[in-house]
Amino acid sequence: MDKEQKFTWAEILKYGAIGGVVALFVILVGMVEGFNERFIISETVTLGQITLFAAAFLLAYFATQSARAIKSTGFALLTSVLVGVISGLFVAGLLFLGTKVNLRDIFLNVSPVLLKILHLGKESMGAAIAANLIISALVGLAGGLFALMPKRWSSALLTGLAYVLLLGIMQELLTITFGNKAFYKPIGKFIYAKKGLSWAGTLLFLAIGVLYQMWKGSDKLHPGKKIATMSRQQQMGIRIASFALGLIVLLLLPRLGTYPSEILTTVGIYIIMGLGLNIVVGYAGLLDLGYVAFFAIGAYTVGILNTTGKFATTEWGFWAALPVAVFLAMMAGVILGIPVLKMRGDYLAIVTLGFGEIIRVLVLSDWLKPFIGGAQGILQIPKPHIGSYVFKGPQQMYYIVLGGILLVGYVAWRLRDARVGRAWKALREDEDVAEAMGIHLVSTKLMAFATGAAFAGLAGAIFAAKLGSIFPHSFNLIVSINVLSLIIVGGIGSLPGVVVGALILVGMPELLREFADYRMLFYGALLVVMMLVMPEGFVPEKTHARPAEGAPPDTGGTPDAAAQEAI
Questions:
Q1: Of 135, 260, 329, 375, which residue is the least packed, with the fewest Cβ within 10 Å?
Q2: How many CB atoms neighbour CB 154 within 10 A?
Q3: What's the CA gap between 60 and 65, in Å, rounded?
Q4: pTM over cut 0.90
């Protein structure tokens, strides 16, 4: 073997071993067993099986791309099969070891149910091992074929498979939401079997996904290119019509039912917080890990002013307490900003983290217990009302959350391109250059902290009114981490990215009970993947988006350009 071929074989072994280790990990943490009850296709393919073999597919895909650059297409396909087989050997080894050692003494998730799943319906050990190796090889081959396809076709097919996976996962939610509707019964009967998509439904959504992606990727049919050729008045008309249609859809969403409305309100509160933290982190580049403190201040202000006690002898009402909550949170943002004006990066993150912990400790302390309830929190916070109309349930609270999103989103959008927004961007790129160009760092930083804190106070006020009670454990560090994560996943500095990140990181785990136990695992894995594959996020900000191949680099995000615009 020459040096080049030795390198290729080593790569095959490396990719296969990584796939096998990942497969063992998802098995041993209980994901395969936990997801196995969720059927995707007509009692044939489960989410647990997809989770088990997904690593072999992905690693074979990447290995085939590397091998194709070195060797022939035939060798690349052989690489994909070998990567799948090597990944399967790890699972086969676990099955064999299970016959010799009681693995449950070490790994609690290795239950008889899990071993039955790994046997793939085969009774003998030899047949089970052979079935795992064959399926892993076929899955690896499928990953290789995807890597060798023209990009347009592979993207279309992956989109179709994503539609099938999504609709299979959403069966329970759609049944709960529309099960009693007359229009849904014939549609649901055609699309779904007793468990999972019917084969007719599978082929239907596969075809829809493929055709949609092909249409979207067509130069002649791409809607964005057609709109770009229209006049300014026509483009404005399309934008207004799209906004009106989207607003109508948003206003009608609570009609889906109580459960979807509850999820939407939770996602909406995180969107409001995300839009606020996006100003601090995304616009100004100030890493804030104590953001939950402002959220807590807003919530406790509404709670205190709407329950009788030492601070309030009469109930203020939600609408009267709301501006007070926003103002106090904003003032807290300024107070935090003053001592950290000269700090950057990790130092700033540590100080803000300490501020958040100080607020949490104060809330739990006996010193403030007579005022805010300590660990027992504040109970019986009245619901918001307008006249005789009370926002008592999630379907009614949804409209308050939606109003908060629209207000905060509009303010953030207007600030983004305003003078202060350009100053924030210059500050984010390089503080020294921004200061040299005449930007006042103190007022710019304080404005960022105050604005982000005000948005968090608004979210906290709505949160308190939604629950009707607040407790200290609702304001842990993990809230700040969640908000920061959704910004990173969606796209730092991107307003639509905040919405996308909240839907992915908050909405999906709320919709699917199987994912709730692995929320933090998904967060970590998704952040790692995003940093490697899409560091700019799902919906990147314009200045962060990677330029198209052959296009001149975008210089709009350089510190000099941003600073000149700001002044």
A1: 375
A2: 16
A3: 9
A4: no
